[in-house]
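Task: sequence design from structure.
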């Protein structure tokens, strides 16, 4: 028996150390939705925006998705900046309906420090929303896409149940570490890669619009937070049950936890995606439905020899990189590659959705250049209203019939084609 007790206490201390380490090692960001959830939520939103505004968001989808996690990684965050990610509704000893929606009224009633300590999330949503409206109104596209990314962050945080409670990491109910287990294990394993589309009309038809806008962001946030708080107990109970059935942190534990709360988490992420889409749309309507900038597709078609031509590959990579630095928020850079050197994928931040399609084919066979050209053609067709330029860096283009035909088609589509012959050998 002494041995078993020793084993047990050893195991317990290991768990404690592991939990403490987790606490110390994970960024403060751990206590929010994790990176994968933020990205999934905003991806789901971008898929359903109305066409008149949607292309801008589509073109900038990669940028917006990348920057949706920014607020979690601001260096040396202030106490207020940290408090913007949660709202501990359970700390208020008045019914949610009686909490002032106006922050200054709240501070007057409860005291400034108390209000900050309990969380500022609803007001962060409103601030980023106003920032997006201002950017769209002044047609500051650079700012608009960044504000959109940051708005998505706080919007998603409002749907995360553990952001609505002071027991945010199960520390008071024997569920210590639950936040990290959900965000950094369960979601990446089971939900992160999934597309969880927002509820909303599809982008397929022009002029589809929602009836429903979010006129009162603070009221919306309070509602989400209240319904999130109601789910905290389910999460903690599920954790306890799974710990009884399986070994904590094992593959089986996460599978069991996912069976119990995965569908609920998915519903919360869908709620986040839906709200983000609606907020983007609402902001655009409030800004006076500005015409969004037409996309300018800058395509770099690289066709470099597979082997032995290292220097040509280097030249191609740096040329593509050079082109990418001058991109604005209306630009889509698609790099379509035949015989791609791997390093090419390093500067991906500004790439729009086009390249996701175009880079699909694993091109490394004879006739690669015409195949790559066809990819470019397909990609350009997805951006019918854009100004399109295609730079082709190649060691020998259009040598076959298919290549020549495609070049002709590109000309007919009024695509500016610039063939950089420096790479010809
Ligand atoms: Zn956050």
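Answer:
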């Amino acid at each position: 028996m002494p041995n078993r007790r020793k084993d047990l206490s050893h195991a317990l201390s290991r768990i404690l150390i592991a939990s403490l380490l987790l606490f110390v090692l994970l960024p403060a960001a751990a206590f929010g939705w994790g990176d994968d959830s933020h990205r999934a939520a905003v991806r789901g939103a971008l898929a359903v925006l109305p066409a008149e505004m949607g292309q801008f968001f589509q073109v900038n989808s990669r940028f917006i998705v990348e920057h949706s996690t920014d607020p979690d990684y601001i260096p040396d965050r202030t106490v207020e900046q940290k408090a913007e990610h949660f709202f501990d509704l359970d700390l208020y000893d008045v019914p949610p309906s009686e909490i002032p929606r106006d922050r200054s009224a709240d501070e007057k009633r409860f005291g400034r420090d108390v209000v900050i300590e309990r969380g500022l999330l609803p007001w962060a949503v409103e601030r980023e929303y106003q920032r997006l409206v201002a950017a769209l109104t002044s047609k500051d596209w650079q700012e608009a896409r960044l504000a959109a990314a940051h708005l998505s962050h706080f919007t998603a945080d409002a749907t995360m149940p553990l952001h609505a409670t002071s027991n945010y990491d199960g520390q008071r109910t024997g569920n210590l570490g639950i936040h990290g287990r959900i965000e950094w294990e369960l979601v990446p394993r089971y939900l992160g890669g999934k597309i969880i589309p927002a509820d909303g009309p599809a982008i397929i038809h022009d002029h589809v619009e929602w009836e429903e806008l979010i006129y009162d962001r603070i009221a919306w946030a309070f509602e989400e937070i209240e319904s999130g708080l109601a789910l905290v107990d389910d999460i903690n109970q599920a954790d306890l049950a799974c710990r009884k059935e399986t070994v904590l942190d094992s593959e089986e534990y996460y599978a069991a936890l996912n069976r119990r709360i995965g569908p609920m988490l998915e519903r919360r992420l869908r709620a986040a995606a839906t709200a983000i889409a609606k907020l983007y749309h609402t902001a655009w309507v409030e800004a006076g439905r500005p015409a969004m900038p037409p996309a300018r597709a800058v395509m770099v078609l690289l066709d470099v020899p597979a082997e032995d031509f290292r220097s040509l590959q280097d030249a191609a990579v740096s040329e593509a990189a050079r082109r990418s630095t001058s991109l604005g928020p209306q630009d889509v850079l698609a790099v379509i590659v035949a015989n791609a050197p791997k390093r090419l994928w390093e500067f991906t931040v500004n790439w729009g959705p086009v390249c996701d399609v175009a880079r699909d084919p694993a091109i490394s066979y004879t006739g690669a250049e015409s195949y790559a050209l066809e990819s470019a053609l397909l990609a350009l067709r997805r951006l019918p209203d854009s100004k399109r330029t295609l730079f082709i860096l190649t060691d020998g283009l259009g040598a076959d019939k298919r290549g020549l035909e495609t070049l002709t088609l590109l000309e007919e589509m009024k695509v500016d084609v610039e063939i950089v012959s420096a790479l010809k050998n």
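The chain has a mean pLDDT of 79.
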